[in-house]
Amino acid sequence: MKKTGIIAAAVVIVLAAGALGWLYFAGWLDRDKPAIRLDSDITAIGKKKDISIAFSDERSGLSGLKVEIVQDNKPRLLAQESFPSRSTRQKVLRLTVEPLLLQLNNGPAVVRITAGDASLFKNETVISEQVRIDMMPPQVYVMSPVNYINQGGAGFIPYRTSKPAALTGVFVDDRFYPGYNIVIGGQPTSVATFAVGTGASASTKIVIFARDSAGNEARTSMPFTIKPKKFRADKVNLSETFLQKIMPEFQGSIPQLQGKTPVEVFGYVNTTLREENSKTIQSVCRKSVNKKLWEGAFHRMRNASPMALFGDERTYLVDGKPFGNSVHLGVDLASTAHAPIEAANNGIVVFAGALGIYGNAVIIDHGLGLFSLYGHLSSIETAVGKPVKKEEKIGLSGLSGLAGGDHLHFSILVGGQFVNPQEWWDPHWIEDNVMKKMNL
Ligand SMILES: [Zn+2]
So what's the architecture of 35-133 in CATH? Predict the structure, then answer.
C-alpha cells in the first residue's frame, strides 16, 4: 500500500503544481497594480471639460474602475464600470465634466480615479488629482477707447484681462491675430496688431478674444472708426515682349509649365503661384518675437520713386481683352539698377530666398506680429536668423520674379496680412496710433 500512497502524493503534488501554474499564468496571482494614465490636463475645469483616462492591467485584467469628483467632502460619481469577464486588459474612458450639472461651485476639488484588477489579491490603484473649478469667463478691459483705422491699414489695441489668458488676440471678422503679452505701466498688458481690408466698413467685426486655462471664453467688441481711403485701378497690357522676358524664369523652375504658352504661364503665375506664395508668407509670419524690436518710423528706400501703390487694382489685358487681375499688396520703389536694399527697421530675418512672384525675397520680423518684406532682389546679403539694424544692407534691388524692371517691392505685414506701408513710414501715424496707446 505504501507504493500507492507515494503515487497518490505525487499526483497531488503534480496537480497542485499544475493548478498553481495555471493560477499564475492566468493572472490570478498577479501582484502588480493596474495602471492609470490621465491623458488630459485637468488643473482647471470650466463649464465643460472633456477628460480621457487610460486604464490597463496586462496580467490579470481589469475588474472595475470608478471616477469621482469630490468637493466639500461630497463625492459625485462621474463614471463606474465593472468587467466580470476578466478579459479587459485595457480601457480608454472618455467623459465630460459639467460642474453646473454636478452642483459644483467655483473653487478647489479633487478628481479621484480608482481601478481594480482581477487577481486573487484584488490589487487596486487610486490616484487623486487636485483641480480647480472655474466657470468665470475672463473680463477684457480695452485700454484705448478711440481707434481710427484706415481702409487697408493696421489697427493696434492694448488691453488687459482679469486673469491670465491661455489664448488671446483680435478677430477681424473670421481672421485671428494673436495678442502679445508685454508690460505697460508696470502691469501685464496684451497688445494686438491687426489688418483691415481695403473694403472694411462700419459693419466689419473687430472683437477682442480671450480664453482662460479652464476654457472659459470672452469676446469683447472693440470701439473703432474706419476711415475710407481711395485706391487706384489701372489696366496693364501684357505685351509679347514682357511675357517672353519674364515667363521662362517660371517655366524653368515649375515643371508643370513645360510646353505652355507664355499667356498660360502668366495665368498660372498670377493665380496658383500667387496664392501659394501668400500661404508661405502667412506661415512664415505665424510666429513673431514677443517683444517690440522696431523703433520709430520705418526706413523707406533712399532716392526712390513710388511706381505702384498699396491697393492698386490691376486688370491684365491680352490683345486688349481682360485676362485676370490682382491687387498690389505693397509699394514698388525704383531707384538705379542694383541699388542697395536696407532693412526698414530693427528685427530678425525670418525668410531669405526664392519666393515665386516676389523673386529673391527677404522677410524681417520686427516683433509683436509686425513684418516687412523685400521682393525682386538681384542678390541677398543676409540670412535667416540674423538680427538686423534699421538701414542695415540686406541685398541689392533687381527684377527677379514677376517684375518688368529693376525695383523693390516693399510690403508690411501684420499677423501675416498685408497692410499699407505708408502708415509705418509716417512718424505721426506711428505716434498717434501705436506709441500713444503704449504710454498709458
Ligand atoms: Zn510690387
Answer: Sandwich (2.60)
